[in-house]
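Q: Two folds, back to back.
A: First:
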Amino acid sequence: MTKAEKKVVGFVSRHILIFGFVAVSVFAFMIRYSFFPQRSADWQIYLSKWITDLGSHPGLSGIGENIGEYNVPYMLFLNIAARTPFEDLYEVKLFSIVFDYLLAGAAAMLVYRNSGAKGAGMSLAAYAAVLMTPVAFIDSAWWSQCDSIYSFGVVLSLYYLTKEKYGWCWFWFGIAFSFKLQAVFFLPVLVICYFASRKMSILNVLIAIGTFVFLLVPALIAGRGLKDTFGIYVAQTGLYGQLTLNTPNLYSILPGDSIDMFQPAAVYLTAGVLGAAACLFIKRGLHSAYSYITLAFWTVTVCTYLLPSMHERYTYLSCILSIIWAAFGRKRYDVLIAGTVNVVSIRSWMAYMFQQEVNFVLLAFVTLAVIIIVSTRLFTLRDEPIPAEEAAEEKTEEAPAEEKKTKKKSDKKTEEKTPETVKAG
């Protein structure tokens, strides 16, 4: 190897993680770019029509009308997209893709802060997995959907929860909830942590409420009524009359699809399971970052498994949280569990994307097995606020500090003795 080669290889070796982040980012975009021409049914039936309708109104007045099913912030973006000279389809996809990267970055930050001495390497792994999972690039680049936006808010909320910055935690939850109703799957985590940590103030909830209300103001200014504006999510809950919409959950196993018969029981069942889990979690006094991350993954997965009228895409957040959870590597099979969650989701999406026949009963039992395994982990956890590797690092850092302190004391004693020595001479 020549000297020039050694310099290049040395430089690359010293900055290998940076090169890793750059390479992953570039190839992840190329994957997404290859899907740009694809026009999904959601785009053709809903999104393109909403953009056309919004563009037919002067200025931003379109968001004052009862157009579309999404909440105000996203409809405001579509209204702006309708007035630009660029291709609407590409704008919608690029907007979601930007949040794909922000979401991956938030996941990397969360892992880096809480995974000890291996944080840098594991954060790169989490960043790569979040960007490269088909769940992410199919949702944004193929489907033209925006699940990365609210998921980004949820992951940042979880990040600040682990940092005990509760104001920011509730602010980012408010952002997430403003974009998508499905952010509510994360709300039980915040409620449980309120009781478990005993540090969070109930007044922090006002931050989320204030954020949500503030982001609805443009619609009110544009002339939309209070009932319509604040009732968007209420209207969404009544849009679909099926127990499950291509989601491999409990209702894929049950015969029939009578929403009227099973819906109330399904809601009560979910509340009961979450309530029992909350009591166990709080009783055990769990409050480490890892326990909160495990709780978030478990809670979101259970909500999509037990609640009625779940779309296939509602498993998106569970897939992302499974990757973050697996990045901590407490057990060797955690990566397998995260992979299973993502594969099950993608397989269930095939029914809509390509009209393929999917065995939802089998996928539902696989998901149930994952829930049982993660439940066992969650409720047998012992709090470990500092991973072993991080603790070892801290001890290593403390040792030089102690040496410096001892050296300073020694130097001080020497200085005190010096005048006497001079005088004696």
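A: Second:
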Amino acid sequence: MGRLVEGSWVDEWHDTGASGGAFLRPPAAFRNWVTADGRAGPTGEGGFRAEAGRYHLYVSYACPWAHRTLIYRELKGLEPLIGVSVVHPDMLAEGWTFGRDFPGTTGDRLHGVAFLRDLYLRAAPRASGRVTVPVLWDRARDTIVSNESGEIIRMFNAAFDGITGNRQDFLPAPLRAGIDGVNARLYEGLNNGVYRAGFATTQAAYDAAVAEVFATLDWLEERLLGRRYLMGAEVTEADWRLLPTLLRFDPVYHLHFKCNRRRLIDYPSLWGYTRDLYQYPGVAATVHLDHIVRHYHYSHATINPHRIIPANPVLDFAAPHGRG
């Protein structure tokens, strides 16, 4: 796994000793925004104008945070404008690599480097911190725009509309405060909650995290009893932020992260809702279960030291969902 320390790579797992065994996710390091006219966004500096062919997206098909950006790239018609490079699903001593010996990996299509950290060092030679996906790269300025998935999808939602003509808005102004509130609960309790359970190194830290995971799933099940999507009749950002976690729940988080009180398929509304979103035009093509299952079980030696890939449940995400 590892991280950068003043520009040097250190192979080091997360340090939970100082936090009572709890996993703490560090904040993203690059927080600039692509905007329609190049003005500065809510964070970072300006100068990143929306242009066709200028930006490139680095992802792992396994990573739920990167998966969000792939969904938005598809739904907003950005494939012709923004290229993609896909890392290898195995994240071992060298971190994310551009090995090409697994189906679907691409290598680094821009620079031909071997490791994702090489891009971080190209942008900031003395960078420190975790080397994560997604990464949105600016070819014109030869640097990283952002590695914060929640902000990248907001850029994709609107910044390029004047080029593509795609005006579908997953963050409508009247719903924004509500979406932000739902996002905050989902992040703490589920999106990051499964990691807090899986990476915990004390019983108390695990117990607290896993209780919150299932409290959040129970809350979602009740919320979806009376509405098709999280905010009502129309799909929004909150749904797309949630979906990658749900798709990984039974194949990975239930077993690998010990979130095994119940399965996703034990929640009738949530299971139908997951299939509904999966069948939304364009979304299924972004789902790569082979990368997902391989990455988690092979990469996390502290959890699965023998790197045995389990026999997983057969899930039919394409089955009728009955939520129309």
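Q: And?
A: Strands lie at 3-5, 8-10, 55-59, 83-86, 135-138, 143-146.
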